[in-house]
Design goal:
The protein contains 11 helices and 8 strands. With 269 residues, the protein is of the alpha/beta class. It has an 8-stranded mixed beta sheet, sandwiched between helices. Helix 6 links the parallel strand 7 (128-134) and strand 8.
């Protein structure tokens, strides 16, 4: 499989690093082009991939073309190379937020296999949560190949496109909310006498370990909450303070607000 990237930014770099280090695709089978020649040069030197001279060369040398540019640039890119894509019919993978399969089919026509992927910022450390869906022309085999690729930078699931706004809230926007929670947790520790470094390190590791425990045990969150909580203890006191201030309701409302805003914009943010 030869994969070409249109764009060599942070997300492209994260994907390339993950698939190469995971042994999914050899570095020599991956090429990329970006208007910023410095980005491509640095990525090629770091990951061992091939720096390509233009987007036309990306299409000409690739079985799979990954659109890894910002959404506002996709129409211009497809105006430039859309004809080449239609003629060659490689698998097109788009990670452009908010651009639906309908948008992409409108630019490329009904005969090009297109897979849309929604990764999240945690791809930068190989811990992304990605949703994958394909158009009517994309085969199960092609979608499975994309699932494997994005499994190289974390976890990937196949999801109906109508659920992408919800996924965008639960997995895409939520890292920002987790960062906010970690900051608040650390500020609480600071107020109680810890240093900034001590409080931040403790908060980050607590969140990281808690997520790992949930993932590895497969237990329901409330089962683990019960294991941490002792009657009349410190954990229960803190839980009560959170719920008195609407913690759970606020998180549910945040998801709903994100989904609602996605519908208003017509583009995931």
């Amino acid at each position: 499989m030869r994969i070409g990237f249109v764009g060599a930014g942070n997300m492209a770099g994260a994907i390339i690093t993950g698939v190469v280090e995971g042994g999914l695709v050899a570095a020599g089978e991956i090429g990329a082009h970006d208007p910023d020649a410095r980005k491509v040069k640095e990525l090629a030197e770091r990951a061992g991939i091939v720096a390509l001279a233009g987007n036309e060369e990306v299409v000409a040398t690739s079985d799979t073309v990954v659109l890894a540019v910002k959404p506002q640039y996709v129409p211009g890119v497809l105006e430039q190379i859309g004809g080449l894509i239609v003629a060659k019919r490689p698998l097109v993978v788009s990670i452009a937020a908010g651009l639906t399969l309908k948008h992409l089919d409108g630019w490329l026509g009904p005969n090009v296999p297109v897979v849309r992927v929604m990764p999240n910022i945690n791809a930068m450390v190989g811990q992304s949560m990605s949703a994958v869906t394909g158009n009517a022309v994309a085969t199960d085999s092609q979608i499975d190949s994309v699932l494997r690729l994005f499994g190289g930078i974390g976890r990937a699931i196949r999801l109906e496109e109508r659920l992408f706004p919800a996924f965008g809230a639960v997995a895409g926007a939520s890292p920002a909310w987790v960062f906010l929670f970690v900051d608040a947790l650390a500020r609480g520790g600071l107020a109680a006498g810890m240093t900034k470094q001590e409080a931040r390190e403790a908060a980050v590791q607590a969140v990281l370990g808690s997520a790992a425990l949930l993932q590895q045990t497969g237990e329901h969150p409330w089962q683990l909450i019960d294991k941490v909580s002792s009657p009349g203890g410190t954990t229960v006191a803190g839980m009560n303070a959170l719920e008195d201030r609407g913690f759970s309701a606020a998180v549910v409302a945040a998801v709903a607000a994100s989904v609602r805003r996605d519908g208003e914009l017509g583009v995931s943010r």
